[in-house]
Amino acid sequence: MADTQIVVDKVLQKDVNKVFSTAVENAELIDIDEGLLLATTTGNLNIRATHDFTRQNGEEVIRQSTRSAVQTLFNSLWQLPVEQVEGTYVVTLPEIKMWLPREKPIPKKRAVTKWQEYAKSKGILNKKKSRMVWDEAAKEYKPRWGYKRANDGTQDWLIEVPANADPMEDQFAKRQTAKKERVAKNELQRLRNIARSQKRKVPGVGLTPTEQPSKDTLSKALVVARKSTASLGKFTEKLPKEKPSKFTGKKRKFEPSIGDLKNERERQLKILDVNAKKVPTINVTKATNRALRESEEQRSRERPSRKTPKKQKGKGASAGRKGGGNKKNRVKRNK
Amino acid sequence: MRPLTPEETGTFFEKLSKYIGENIKLLIDRPDGTYCFRLHRDRVYYLSEELLKIGSSAARDNLLSIGSCFGKFTKSGKFHLHVTALDYLAPSAKHKVWLKSSAEQQFLYGHHVMKSGLGRITEGTEQYQGVIVYNMNDLPLGFGVAAKSTLAIRNCDPMTIVVFHQGDTGEYIRNEEFLT
């Protein structure tokens, strides 16, 4: 009984040493990354090096190796500055040594809005403005924008009617509607910026209501109205005297000023040829005049009944007159 | 400054061909250099390539005129030929009219030409044909539109208008501000 006890003690002792010792062999083969709590065993696990390549031996080797790695990790963890927080030991992990690849793709750059593009091209810098502005009426500092802002036109309790305005017009309502329109315009611009960044097509606005419609607003409205059908104006009939409108809704595109001059010349010559073809080769008036004159001459030849030759003017004069008109050709009599 | 669009070129060439016919080719294809037409503030200018390159460095608002002005486009797209184009029209003119010395003054003041002032006219001029007006010493005075054909002119009485005035060299003094 005592023998067995001794043996058990011995075995336990051995085991205890084995289990509770913090010694690690081949510590230099183990890479520790405290930030990731990662312990890597470099070098090959020589399972085959053991004499008996049985499954159990292999397991044993792996277990030993794992134990060394974990022990080394914890050894190094305890080397770090330890704090005690509410009864527990806390260790601040250092920076990660091994960088892991990205989990998600790199975010795309934000699309530049129309204003930002313009500002960049002109070199306009954004000047920082203070949040609070002095409001003279309230005699205190108020936010420049937002709730309870300074110099809010819509909150005026008294508005003077300007001299050129209609006295019956509601100035308060006018300010409210103006604000609403500004907000709507801003919203439209914002949505347009988004549409542009996502490269989505936006239908044209067409004609927006204005306070002072110009001369061509009517013709524009006509064009927009004829297009505003389900089939985009394909089957809209033309009015009796409707002329093709100049307003196509498309921006005009011009060639660059210093483009390909040779190309330009060729195009102009082509236009010349087209124009030349349009002119009819037979001049109708000339042909009819000639035909008429011929028929008249023929008629006058067929009718020699006139005693004195009719006084003819123009081209017929020299042709029809007998004996020539010149003094030179006159036959001399009584010589 | 921009090149003319095909529609504008068509209108412009149509107007020019009334005076010089197919000799427009001589303006486009010149042996002594590349010349081109450019539009600036509704006016058509005729300039060489080097001048074009120099002129395009000027700002649009600051550029008044460049090369030779041939005329201007109206708001409704029609083209009006100005007397500044006379130097290019005169050599390649198809139909010419010569004025008597007595009528020269009247034409240069901007009046129409009457039959009494007409010296010579090329044969075969049709009605409403573009003509270049010369004086008896073969000096180009301006251009106009024939009111009657050559045949009709022979038959009509001396007080009828035979050539409608379109442009004359007197405009350089009278119409200075509008000519550029």
UniProtKB/TrEMBL annotation, chain A:
Residues 324-335 have a biased composition (Basic residues). The keyword Protein biosynthesis does not apply. Pfam families: RRS1. InterPro entries: Ribosom_reg. GO terms for biological process: endonucleolytic cleavage in ITS1 to separate SSU-rRNA from 5.8S rRNA and LSU-rRNA from tricistronic rRNA transcript (SSU-rRNA, 5.8S rRNA, LSU-rRNA); ribosomal large subunit biogenesis. One of its GO terms (cellular component) is nucleolus. Residues 235-245, 261-270, 291-305 have a biased composition (Basic and acidic residues). Residues 235-335 are annotated as: Disordered. It is found in: Nucleus. Keywords: Nucleus, Ribosome biogenesis. Involved in ribosomal large subunit assembly. Belongs to the RRS1 family. This is Ribosome biogenesis regulatory protein. It comes from Candidula unifasciata.
From TrEMBL, chain B:
InterPro entries: NIP7_N, Nip7_N_euk, PUA, PUA-like_sf, PUA_sf, Ribosomal_synth_fac_NIP7, UPF0113_PUA. It is found in: Nucleus, Nucleolus. GO terms for cellular component: nucleolus. Keywords: Nucleus, Ribosome biogenesis, RNA-binding. Its main location: nucleus. Pfam families: pre-PUA_NIP7, UPF0113. It comes from the Eukaryota. Transmembrane segments: none annotated. One of its GO terms (molecular function) is RNA binding. GO terms for biological process: ribosome assembly. Residues 95-170 form the PUA domain. Belongs to the NIP7 family. Required for proper 34S pre-rRNA processing and 60S ribosome subunit assembly. Interacts with pre-ribosome complex. This is 60S ribosome subunit biogenesis protein NIP7 homolog. It comes from Candidula unifasciata.
